[in-house]
From TrEMBL:
The gene is kynU. This is Kynureninase. The keyword Hydrolase applies. GO terms for cellular component: cytoplasm. SUPFAM superfamilies: PLP-dependent transferases (SSF53383).
Amino acid sequence: MPDATTVLEKDRQDPLKAFRERFVLPDGVIYLDGNSLGVLPAGMSRRIAEVVEREWGERLVRGWNDAGWIDLPARVAGKIARLVGAGDGTVAVGDSTSVNVFKTLSAALALRPDRRVILSDSNNFPTDLYIADGLARLIGQGYELRTAMAADMDDAIDASVAAVLLTEVDYRTGWRYDMAQTTRRIHAAGALAIWDLCHSAGAFPVHLEEADADFAIGCGYKYLNGGPGAPAFLYVAPRHLEGIRPALSGWMGHQAPFAFTADYAPAEGIARMTVGTPPVLSMSALDAALDAFDGVDMELVRAKSQDLCDLFIAEVEAHCPELELVTPRERSQRGSQVSFRHPEGYAIMQALIAEGVIGDFRAPDILRFGMTPLYLSHGDVARAAEILGRIMGEKRWDRPEFRTRAKVT
Ligand SMILES: *Cc1c(COP(=O)(O)O)cnc(C)c1O
């Protein structure tokens, strides 16, 4: 056990501790799953009730103009741009991450028409691989998805590659690519870089422009706390904006949607990457959620996230020698999560959740714990490790009910 006073002292001196009030967490729960579904921001219920009752209920279709619904995606995009190091007019919000992989990847391929290979990481999140494979099959013409292990990525980037689709932080291990360095390597081979920021946006400072990324995509419901199924976002580097003709050429990305012309003409700039009517309710929730980042110094978030990861690793290793750490010990090489491997990982996680510590399980054997510094304290993390230690020591996970797999893990 670390000295309890040291943990207390760290929490007392925590420059982010006041932000805890911006979130609502259930009593008796230590939430280490903000990397899968962010928590409820304070004031959300009121805001959503207002949108439903005042805007939808009273304004009805007039809400598109007088409640500003039509401009809501662009407003939300501005808030996200600040968190990912992107300039004005380079981020669009809407659809899911999966759909945005399709949109950005199809745009990237069209910018490198003489190349046929999409390169990705063998351990990338499956939807990224599935969408890339589906797109390659849809286009035909010799397009293919090729994958390589992260350690072999540099060698795999050659002159046949049109676009490299990588997730900055590995969703299982928490291992993190060096985005700037890998992007340089991709550009040196004449290919384009598409970064998936699902485990980056809102977790630590992201510098898309500085890293010279070509495209990016990311999730609204993980570290951004936009709520289950929140709209996702995408980024296009300014140099590519005017050269893209979207594959999903929907009316909301048209130059003049309400001219109702039969021919498609892309809107100026990033607006062309929007497809259909925005989901106003969930977009309003994401909009409100992003206000929780007002005045937040993301460098402080990063520093505390790494402190929490270090503390959790040390405590779990002290209490649970049978769990194998799969996340890098080196701070710069990881995102904002800590993962351990155990053959009975699923049952262990269910036992842990039953005791109020919520993390998640990723097949085949990974116990995953997300660190979200705006609402977690050092005390929470130390306590979670202590409870995990008790579950392991007393084999409390070894019960049939903890082995029954639910649909969502
Ligand atoms: C969570 C996640 C997704 C999710 O995609 P959805 O379309 O929202 O289901 C995609 N990619 C990565 C890397 C993720 O972590």
